[in-house]
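Ticket #4471: structure output looks truncated?

Reporter: J.K.
Steps to reproduce: submitted the chain below (347 residues) through the standard prediction queue, then opened the result file.
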Amino acid sequence: MARIDVDAHVDETEATWSFLTESERRHTPVCTDPGVPTVPGDRRPHRLWLIDGGTRLRRWRDDVRTGTVQATRELTDIPARLAHMDELNVDVQVLYPTLFLGGFTARAEVDTALTGAYNRWMADATQTSGGRLRWVALAPMLDIDEAVNQLRWAKENGACGVMKKGIECGRSASDPYFFPLYEEASRLDIPVCIHTGTGNPPTSGADIGGRFNAIAAFTDLAMSDVPDRFPELRVGWIETGASWVPFLMADLIAKAQKLTFHPFDYRSDLFRNCRFYVACDTTDDLPYILSFGTEDSLMIGTDYTHADQSAELHALDVIERREAEGEIPEGVAKKIIDENPRRFYGI
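Returned output as attached by the reporter:
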């Protein structure tokens, strides 16, 4: 059995922007690093990325708290990262960004430049990992045609998914604006990965919190014709946990029964029929969540490099232990750790 970490991260560095093309270098983010704490008594320097006239936080990491070191977080030492994966008994990590979890510009040309640089950086950095470091591509959603072009390039260069926010470009996930991306993802057999995060630029004032942004897409997609229009498309919710599943499923059933002015096809065995996947947390009530037909849809990630409520370096071990203790049925741990993520990411 392979052990697949479906949600690990990297921290962008100046090396990321070295992959900008010559004509794009005018968009290079600049880091302000005062080297001193902003708040007295706080040893963390307040670092910012200056991007397109705005600012985004450049994360400062504590090695002890994250259980990682700078060289593994920033992919400057691939053998060290693989060795750490060996210590964690992880065969494959699927990598997501850090900076790009939030909107950073309202201009399509900047979006295209920076997401393209990130994709080229990831393709270059992971090529010596022997397939153990897989990555999810970024798409410049402000230019959907360019998003499709970058997805094609990313697939050809090792990407195993494309990241999306639940709400971005001021549009819901079922908006026809995104259909060209869904069509191409289906053709390329690559999943759409709805990661927790915010989808609009920081100055727009029109966004909701990270997890809420992501799960907003669940009801939206389930009530739409997207699963039928794109019958090969796989969609996953990453770093959202799965505790929302019972609530939104109950809400969806109620809508199907009572919203006669907005009829929709409530699909029985919804997760399988819609090809929906969810990365759970180790703290989720898995026996209850499994009762909603999610056995072939649940996955697990460590949130490697981060140190928030989703972070658990030994998440895969926790799932196996919960099965060994009889909390979840026999065979489910293998599905969560191996079979479901393998099917979702096409590994």
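Triage note (M.O.): checked the attachment and the full token line is present. Residues 108-126 form the longest helix (19 residues).
Status: closed, working as intended.
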